[in-house]
Amino acid sequence: MNTHSDMSPVPSKEQMAYADWLFYGCWIGLVVMLITYAVYVSGILIPHVPLERMSEYWNEPVSTYLAKAQAPIGWGWVALLGQGDFVNFVGVVFLAGLSIICYIRILPGLLAKKDMIYFTLAVLQVLVLVFAASGILGSGAH
Length: 142
Hints:
By secondary structure, the chain is an all-alpha fold. It is 63% helix and 0% strand. It has 6 helices and no strands. Helix 5 (89-112) runs antiparallel to helix 6.
C-alpha cells in the first residue's frame, strides 16, 4: 500500500522556476511600491495632483476625478512618470505584469523538453495577457 508521501506530486523544473520568479518578483514589486510611495509622500518628486488636494477628489466619481485632476486614462500615465503620484504606478504595473515575466521565463525549458502543448499554452497566455494590458480593446488597460 502506498503511503501519502509516496504519492506526493513532484513539481517540474518549470513549475519551480515560475514559483521562484513569482516569489522574488512579488518582493521586488513590494519594495518598489514602498520606495515610490516614500518618494510620493516625501515630496521628492512634485505630484500631478498635490497631496493636500487629494481629499477634494475622494468622494467624486472616477470621471469627475479624471476631469478635475486632468489625469490620463489607460497608458497615459507613462508620460507622467516624473511626477510623484504617477511614479507609484511602476510597482503596481510590475506586479500586474509579473505573470507574463514568469511565463516567458519558463518558455525555454518547455521548448527544450519538447513539451509543445504547454509551450503553446504558455505562449498563448503571454499573448492574451499582453493584449489585454495593451488597451487595444478600449478597456483603458486597467
